[in-house]
């Protein structure tokens, strides 16, 4: 197993994002399928499981707790607060909300602990910075949870280098999680350098470009109605054909290397630094095994240069988020 440090935790270089088992991509996975998949993930060497209160509005955490709870000492558990569902009793009031108030973060953590069937969460992220609440206030509340023994370390998701530095002064930050892949280079602007300056691990979500850098390239017209990619500019009728033109030369490189397109995307990320930990999300057991094998792939400088020249912020068409979703994040915009 190829291990990397996630703050104080030694984990497999490639972890697992647990959103896909119940959330965001429109194809429901049965409870039985999800349970079998999570057991398989543990069997094939996943030691870093990443979930959130938001995913399925608690369903992902519940599944992780039910299936993996008995094996809690075998893996590092990460979850998130600060972006979840607003409820009135058992009724959803508004759907998804971003709320970084200390009392909300505490309540979410208490719920997560119960769903995850654990006494402590190893790494607890602020899923989004609530810009109506000073970052120091939200992180200070998470620091209280560390002192109380409910969480071990603190992470931030989709934040800028400036916000990271402010937060780190309030309480040490263990990890920053942001989208990072060949086609999403925003972290390279400033936040990666800030992480390295402060000794913060970097967790890369959507490392295979939301399925774009895979064998089965998404057919946007066939995506389920609730698939989040339908609202993403890179998958629009205007931009998607331009992006698809990148795939033929990309697949040629994968063929030359002797790996799948998804493995090439993950291997590229792993070559960007020992402090980078990809968490590809899937609910497909074959894809899971394929992803984990990417840690064995060694890429030459010549291959890395070809990949960087082929797919980058200048060659990809469209923003990664819609205007509304872009307002919810705090990352530096691409120049």
Automatic annotation (TrEMBL):
Q: Do you know which Pfam families this protein is assigned to? A: Aldo_ket_red (PF00248)
> Source organism's superkingdom?
Bacteria
- UniProt keywords, alphabetically: Oxidoreductase
UniProt cross-references to Gene3D superfamilies, sorted A to Z:
NADP-dependent oxidoreductase domain
NADP-dependent oxidoreductase domain ranges (all copies)? 14-310
InterPro entries documented for this protein: Aldo-Keto_reductase (IPR050791), NAD(P)_OxRdtase_dom_sf (IPR036812), NADP_OxRdtase_dom (IPR023210)
Query: What name goes with this protein?
Result: Aryl-alcohol dehydrogenase-like predicted oxidoreductase
